[in-house]
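Annex B.
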Amino acid sequence: MVAENSSVAEFILAGLTDQLEQQVPLFFLFLGFYVVTVVGNLGLITVIGLNSHLHTPMYFFLYNLSFIDFCYSTIITPKMLMSFVSKKNIISYAGCMTQLFFFLFFVVSESFILSAMAYDRYVAICKPLVYVASMSPQVCLLLLLGVYGMGFAGAMAHTACMVRLTFCDNNVIDHYMCDILPLLERSCTSTYVNELVVFLVVGIDIGVPTVTIFISYALILSSILRIRSTEGRFKAFSTCTSHIIAVSLFFGSGAFMYLKPSSLLPMNQGKISSLFYTIVVPMLNPLIYSLRNKDVKIALKKTLSKKSFS
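Olfactory receptor: predicted structure tokens.
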């Protein structure tokens, strides 16, 4: 498949580095990251699915967060690992556009699932008496449909604008994946519309969840400050800090990558920024959101004991 207005049938992904002595260590490093990501997220999905006492709104969103992290890590990491062990990491035009679409779909979905999780915590802490009614299964399902709906809309907007471009004979993408900005650099035609869509759509996909999260946590912190117990305050602040750090990594690296003009952001810095939200964040999320959680630990022990007994 080749776009009618493009002379390029395939792209070559340059990868993270062209230093030969770094290829093997980086391959095993990121292979280890990917294994931890897969085991952590699939393990969390399994534990939540098998334990009925975890079938609550908070763990419903965690379940979907792990599903999203697993999916978009799998879309990117295996192809990136190929660049470390092959002379040319070739991807077809159709494969590149497919990777771009699903990467954007899951990344945008993650930004909105994080905001849904923050809203859930706000209702649980600030309005506990109406929590069951406010976060009913119907409400949770509508929030989830909104999450994936925004993911689909964002991915379609960017991908539709990308396929209208004409790509030059120089088909080497200076990145480890088919991302928006590296692809725009290979275009022979004007990318003004694409850049406008990047600022508008990414601004919405980062801005709306960020505002939602910060407002939710501001109200949560206000409630925490009313807690008389010092131990209770510390425990609540510790939980919020972990969440805010993970959210800051995801949104901060995304904003740094997409909301600055490409002339001000060298591609090497863009690759490093991309590593945070494509590789590091999916690996850390199970640890930050769940494995430090007492309920998940108990459920994991029960699941493992059942398997050992059987």
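Residues 93-126 form the longest helix (34 residues). The beta strands are 10-13, 89-92, 172-173. Further annotation is deferred to the next reporting cycle.
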